[in-house]
Write a structure and sequence with these properties.
It is built from 13 helices and eight strands. It is of the alpha/beta class. It has one domain: TIM Barrel. It has an eight-stranded parallel β-barrel, surrounded by six helices. Helix 7 crosses helix 9 and helix 11 packs across helix 13. It starts with a strand and ends with a helix.
Length: 262
């Protein structure tokens, strides 16, 4: 059974004081969380240690937004998986479009990071998705398929199943635009078919597929209740405890809408 995952990606926001305040608010409101959903916050490197101590007494998971693939070395300014593991980081985002666009990350480096995170037992969230130009040229599925094939090069099935996939159409990240629930689900279903071809049908059924791209409390229910979407990678909306909880509790909204229809 696939357990839904709601992950907040804070990006380059919140100093340590602001991070602590936001997480304390989440913890205080955590009794209202949907118990059938796993909750994750991916905070800036500077706040990881402080937030880890706060989360020790909660069910909220801790994630990093990036990492280097080597354990140590002469890589000024980089953070290794060993450093993240020592803090108690459980998840790490790999290959976000902003990393690819602004910091020249390649399919090759993403592949190395996936292997490294698996090796250190840190669960990777692999980001994939197409640009608006690629969608308009109708090559969005070819683009996503190639990203998956390249990312999972030389990764065995027993390790591949540990990777969470985040489908983020680049044109919808931080723009206020959102893929329709049908578009998002169609791509999520396609992603499972790619895994079926790469590995096997059982693995394709098990892999967790998130949707990311201007997810908010108002559209979370419709997105998350699609057949092949298992959660969300949330950007700006995760910076508000109240809005993030609205997304976490997407099933409550779904039930409310159904009751109103009936």
């Amino acid at each position: 059974m696939r357990i839904p995952l709601i992950a907040g990606n804070w990006k380059m926001n919140n100093n340590i004081h602001e991070s602590i305040s936001l997480v304390n608010n989440l913890i205080q409101l955590s009794n209202d969380f949907n118990n059938n959903v796993e909750v994750l916050v991916c905070v800036p490197f500077t706040a990881l240690y402080s937030i880890r101590k706060l989360l020790n007494s909660s069910n909220i998971k801790l994630g990093a937004q990036n990492m280097h693939y080597d354990e140590k070395g002469a890589y000024t300014g980089e953070i290794s998986p060993l450093m993240l593991k020592e803090i108690g980081v459980e998840y790490v985002i790999v290959g976000h479009s902003e990393r690819r666009q602004y910091f020249n990350e390649t399919d090759e480096s993403v592949n190395k990071k996936l292997k490294s995170s698996i090796n250190f037992a840190i669960k990777p969230i692999l980001c994939i998705g197409e640009t608006l130009e690629q969608r308009e040229r109708k090559i969005e599925k070819i683009t996503v398929e190639n990203q998956i094939i390249n990312a999972f090069k030389d990764i065995k099935a027993e390790d591949a199943v540990k990777v969470v996939i985040a489908y983020e159409p680049i044109w919808a990240i931080g723009t206020g635009k959102t893929a329709t629930s049908e578009e998002a689900n169609e791509m999520s279903s396609f992603i499972r078919n790619v895994f079926k071809e790469l590995y096997n049908e059982e693995l394709a059924k098990q892999v967790i597929v998130l949707y990311g791209g201007s997810v908010k409390g108002e559209n979370a229910s419709e997105l998350m209740n699609q057949t092949d979407i298992d959660g969300a990678l949330v950007g700006g909306a995760s910076l508000s405890a109240e809005e993030f909880i609205r997304i976490i509790n997407f099933n409550q909204q779904y039930e409310k809408v159904n009751k109103e229809i009936l």
